[in-house]
Write a structure and sequence with these properties.
The longest helix is centred in the last third of the chain and has 20 residues. The chain is globular and about 55 Å long. It starts with a helix and ends in a 5-residue tail after the last helix. An eight-stranded parallel beta sheet has the order 1-2-3-4-5-6-7-8. Strand 6, helix 11 and strand 7 form a beta-alpha-beta unit. By secondary structure, it is of the alpha/beta class. It contains 17 helices and eight strands. The chain has one domain: Alpha-Beta Barrel (TIM Barrel). The structure holds adenine and zinc ion. Adenine binds next to helix 4.
Length: about 350
């Protein structure tokens, strides 16, 4: 039998909550800063990493938007995305649905197409080279106004063939989903899938709004749903997936200690949760490291833990915006993988 770490390493997985700008590792940031003749307000890679000490979401967002400023050309966005693909190609990641924040770039004078073309062409190459399927989800920055979101949606319309959905991210408290009700209605009319960050720091009411007003198909994070029994019942009834991000939650102090992470409780209640990395360059781990971080909480024996890991990986595919046939194919990969594990002789 494989150890838990080995089991996670080879387990086929999908990642559904990943901000591509959040994969910007300090080493690459310095390299691109030099290429674009930009001076970073940090002396070294080490000094930059030291600044990744957050006590809430806003602390992180301030540094995340500052980091983005280095991204200028299509090649920069390609290199950023490619670096992420190279990492997760070694983590048995089979499908990804990645977020990007166009407003964070357009407001700096970078064309929407520069961003999208760079990200998309790297993903096409990743499909060829690593057989990782993908979707792109465009997020609206919720700290900006409705008008800006509508403008951003207009920019996306000529690229519907390359953008599968819209999402909502950035500073949650004080920016409820209701602010974007009309933008999301238009996005749905245009045929986009819809998701939104809700219940990361914000109250359960924001999750209700995301469901009732934005009509989201998945909730990103959703941690605070556990505070409201009626909401949990609703999420169960409607089988709404929660894209949970364990290391993000500890780094941003949404959870005080990984030991108290709500994921085991979510699974116990029957919620359709799965594991994601959110902004791995800032939070200390990619997808496998997130699985590893919560695995001790998933049972008392390795057998129990592996069953829960299989459930989490299955949820990642069944919650994806892919066809039923594709879901079935990935579930078969998982089933074949779990059989190889049980066939291996025990090592003592
Ligand atoms: N943008 C990037 N990461 C985010 C997060 N965890 N919450 C809200 N907005 C984000
Ligand atoms: Zn996020």
């Amino acid at each position: 039998m494989q150890t838990i770490k080995e089991f996670i390493a080879g387990l086929p997985k999908a990642e559904l909550h990943l901000h591509i700008e959040g994969t910007f590792e300090p080493e690459l940031m310095f390299e691109l800063a030099e290429r674009n003749r930009i001076t970073l307000p940090f002396e070294s890679v080490e000094a930059l990493r030291k600044a990744y000490d957050f006590s809430e979401l806003q602390d992180f967002l301030d540094i995340y938007y500052q980091g983005m400023n280095v991204l200028r050309t299509e090649q920069d966005f390609y290199d950023l995305t490619w670096a992420y693909l190279e990492k997760v190609s070694k983590q048995a990641v089979r499908h990804i649905e990645i977020f990007f924040d166009p407003q964070g770039h357009v407001e700096r004078g970078i064309a929407f197409e520069t961003v999208l073309n760079g990200i998309h062409s790297a993903l096409v190459q990743g499909k060829k080279e690593f057989d990782i399927s993908f979707g792109i989800i465009m997020c609206f920055l919720r700290h900006l106004d409705e008008e800006d979101a509508f403008k951003t949606l207009d920019s996306a319309l000529p690229h519907k063939d390359r953008i599968i959905g819209v999402g909502l991210d950035s500073s949650e408290i004080g920016h409820p989903p209701s602010k974007f009700q009309r933008v999301f209605a238009r996005a749905r009319d245009e045929g986009f899938h819809v998701v939104a960050h809700a219940g990361e720091e914000g109250p359960p009411e924001y999750i209700y709004e995301a469901l009732d007003l934005l009509k989201v198909e998945r909730v990103d994070h959703g941690n605070t749903s556990l505070r409201d029994e009626a909401l949990v019942q609703r999420l169960l009834r409607e089988e709404i997936p929660l894209t949970v991000c364990p290391l993000s939650n500890t780094k941003l102090c949404v959870v005080d200690d990984i030991k108290n992470h709500p994921l085991p409780k979510m699974l116990e209640l029957g919620l359709k949760a799965m594991i994601n990395s959110d902004d791995p360059a800032y939070f200390g781990g990619y997808l496998n490291e997130n699985y590893e971080a919560v695995s001790p909480l998933l049972g008392s024996t390795d057998q129990e833990k592996k069953e829960k890991l299989l459930l989490l990986a299955s949820n990642s595919f069944t919650s994806a915006f892919i066809s039923e046939a594709e879901k079935e194919q990935y579930l078969q990969e998982i089933a074949a993988y779990s059989q190889t594990d049980s066939r291996e002789p025990a090592q003592e």
